[in-house]
Design goal:
Oligomer: single chain
CATH topology of the largest domain: D-Maltodextrin-Binding Protein, domain 2
Helix content: 25-40%
Largest sheet: 9 strands, mixed
Number of helices: 11
Shape: globular
Strand content: 15-25%
Structural class: alpha/beta
Radius of gyration: 29 Å
CATH class of the largest domain: Alpha Beta
Length: about 350
Amino acid sequence: MDEQSKPHRASPMPAAPAARARRRLVAGGAALAGLAAAGGPRAQEWRPAQPVVYTIPAGPGGALDQAVRMIKSIGERRRLVERPFVIENRPGGAGRVALSALDQNPGNPHFLTVVTYSLLTNHVLGELPTTWRDYTQVASLFGEYVTVSVRAESPVRDARDLVERLRQAPESLSIGVATSVGNHIHVGVAKPLRAAGVDVAKLTVVPYKSSQESLTNLLGGHLDVMAATTPNVLAQLQAGRIRVLAVASRARLQGALAAIPTWRELGVDADYESAQGVMAPRGIPREALAFWDRFFATVTSDPEWQEFVRARQWDPRYLNAADADRDLERAYADTRGVLQALGLARR
């Protein structure tokens, strides 16, 4: 057999570049799979890279301010963030002053603000052009209830007596609210009175700058009835200087308010729960929203926070961004209906 007719045998060759590349890809894929199984590369998680500015639509010392400062304290104690929290009290402008930080920093997750149902009422009243839909909902932290109180020596005996007096003459008793006519405190007292048959559009409602000012005027005899959230009545109730007639919760509360009936217990088919939460500017990255969700879920599960909420008779319910958004959607429709009955709705 001549050389040309012999079968050809390929001589050993070095591995081709493509084969080597395939081996590297396989090895790299295995490494990435290991990282994914371990929870993913931590370096890719978003964390605050600058100070976090947390604005409050109220002055220092009140319930809103106390809650934010507790959040800051727990976050620092548990080292949930490396960057400092800068708390700024920005009252005024129906919430516009506090919201301006978010308006001026779209997409920046280093800016947070307190959201209450006043954001809803002020929009329905025509005082605020924006709603919660114009921002990123981060979380709802707790619910709060509106109480109705009179001074200890008031001739109004109980909630049924109050309703009967207001049915006959809606304007006969002055009712104090803070901080403005048409806000969530006003809605929280008007909703059950309306359900009880009172013409709430004719009520004599007196706005005060704070619930402390309402309380001072109630105790001084310059005001007949005070509507306020639970933290504002506890001390004077325990001192025996006021009587709390009813609370707009779904079920009876505990502690110092355990003896106070709900409106439903009195035969009035109504309750009203406001809420306090957190918002960020519109368009923040999803990774940042996920970080803040973990942050606030951790804070609200802390024993110090839970005791803080319990002592104020708040409803300790945490809602993530999606659930908080749905809650505000429901509350907006409810609030708008009450404000329409009051003759105050502009939207």
